[in-house]
Amino acid sequence: MSTATGSCLCGAIRYRVDGPLRPVVACHCSQCRKTTGHHVAATSAPADCVTIEGEPRWYRSSDSAERGFCPTCGSNLFWRRPGHLSIWAGTLDTHPDDLKLASHIFCADKGRYYEIADGLPQAAQDDPALALATRPG
Ligand SMILES: [Zn+2]
Ligand SMILES: [Zn+2]
């Protein structure tokens, strides 16, 4: 079983993932852009595989989801809904070598100041096949 660790900028929030990480998905929706200042690059793991130390603050950004951030340094770390936790890949300290960016979602909402030119699959909106499946194993 693989283990990954990460934290916010100031270290008040730390986390450990004991289990598989989903390949990284870039989300270009307006909520992700607003909360991070650009777009999000998120991995995810089953919520019961993740141990969080410290007290993230959770902002309810929609009827079904919350975004977690450090109340001290403001780092964006998590997006969650029942049974699912996304983790912003930039907050990882250690992770398996094979964790890679794999796709883009909500491309119809992307910022106009950049292009997506890496050749990876793009979905105009959400795409469960690209975004929500946790890598088996
Ligand atoms: Zn912090
Ligand atoms: Zn998004």
UniProtKB/TrEMBL annotation:
<dbReference type="InterPro" id="IPR006913">
    <property type="entry name" value="CENP-V/GFA"/>
</dbReference>
<keyword id="KW-0456">Lyase</keyword>
<keyword id="KW-0479">Metal-binding</keyword>
<protein>
    <submittedName>
        <fullName>Uncharacterized conserved protein</fullName>
    </submittedName>
</protein>
<dbReference type="GO" id="GO:0046872">
    <property type="term" value="F:metal ion binding"/>
</dbReference>
<keyword id="KW-0862">Zinc</keyword>
<feature type="domain" description="CENP-V/GFA">
    <location>
        <begin position="4"/>
        <end position="115"/>
    </location>
</feature>
<comment type="similarity">
    <text>Belongs to the Gfa family.</text>
</comment>
<dbReference type="Pfam" id="PF04828">
    <property type="entry name" value="GFA"/>
</dbReference>
<dbReference type="GO" id="GO:0016846">
    <property type="term" value="F:carbon-sulfur lyase activity"/>
</dbReference>
<dbReference type="InterPro" id="IPR011057">
    <property type="entry name" value="Mss4-like_sf"/>
</dbReference>
